[in-house]
Structures are given as structure tokens and as C-alpha cells.
Write a structure and sequence with these properties.
elongated, alpha+beta, RNA polymerase II subunit B1 CTD phosphatase RPAP2 homolog, metal-binding, hydrolase, zinc ion binding, RNA polymerase II CTD heptapeptide repeat phosphatase activity
Amino acid sequence: MEVVEERYISKICGFPLCSNPVEVKFSQKYRIDVKNKKVYERSAEVDKFCCQNCFLRSAVLRAQLDTEPLWIRGDEHST
């Protein structure tokens, strides 16, 4: 979602209903778990939110949105 990216660039939490600041990070692409000897790819998407709760709430909101723009869908809800 472009809204999340725009808010992150403005140093605001990516969740549209949250106004908390976020720190723009340039973090590593991978996370190494020395104890279990595994390498994990780090998701930069989570860093665009002030907390895990806002990230999850944003995912729920995103799932409810239609991917097709309104002007392409036409007048399907007319009576």
C-alpha cells in the first residue's frame, strides 16, 4: 500500500489511524540466529510501524480493501 510507504517516509507510523512517530531505519537484510544456527530474511515492512500491534491492524485493514480501483469497478453498487 502506498499509504504505508508515504507515512513511513514522513516518519509517521504506517497504520493510517496512528500518529505515533517511527524511526526511519536502514537495517540489515538478514537476521542471524546464532543459537539455532539459522539465517532469516528480515522483513522491512514491520519497520514501517511504531509497534507490532499497528502492523497487525494494518494487515487486517489491507485484507479488507479491494485491489481494483473504484473507477475501474464501475457502478456495481447502484440500485
